[in-house]
Amino acid sequence: MSVIRLGSGGPWEEAFGYSRIVVAGPNAYVSGCTAVIGGVVHHEGDPYRQAWTAFDAALKALKEAGFGRADVVRTRMYLVHPRDMEAVGRAHKELFDTARPAATMVVVSKLIDPQMLVEVEVDAYRDGRVAS
User: Fold this and answer.
1) Has residue 62 been placed in a domain?
2) Helix (H) and strand (E) counts for the chain?
3) 91 C-beta neighbours (distance < 10 Å), count
4) Is there a domain that residue 132 lies in?
5) b/e string for 11-20 if b means 16 or more Cβ within 10 A?
6) 130 found inside a domain
């Protein structure tokens, strides 16, 4: 089985030695994504828009590796405030309602930047098709 590792050019990938997405056979694993674009946290104070932006980054990584939204089988959402559960859940539903992946949402004490309200991870499966 081949393993393909792709980066997004994000500042921490090179510094910390990880890939944005790893494809192993029919499976894809997207590293934690936040609302950081160009090194800047976007949508300060808005958990819905941060979640949407984070999931969008994950979906772009999946697309680059040949996966689509319908291939998503598991999501994880890390929130810094329990009060943001509804807003983040609404973004998740809007993006994944037709795919209905297994999902986990947990509250953590904090993320790397205090402006970050949510971080997400996405796993996908491609029905036996292997990336070329």
Assistant:
1) yes
2) 3, 8
3) 23
4) no
5) eebeeeeebb
6) no
User: CATH number for the domain including 25?
Assistant: 3.30.1330.40
How many Å separate Cα 6 from the centre of its chain? 14
Is 80 part of any domain?
A: yes
pLDDT tens profile 36-94: 988 899 999 999 999 999 999 999 999 999 999 999 999 999 999 999 999 999 999 99
pLDDT tens for 4-42 read 887 887 777 777 787 789 999 999 999 999 999 888 999
The tokens 């828009």 sit on which residue?
49
The burial of 21, by beta-carbon neighbours within 10 Å (0-12 exposed, 13-18 middle, 19 or more buried), is given as buried
Say what the pTM is: 0.91
User: Which tokens go with 60?
Assistant: 């772009």
**41: containing domain:** 3-125
Instruction: Determine the pLDDT at residue 130.
Output: 54
User: What is the total count of domains within the chain?
Assistant: 1
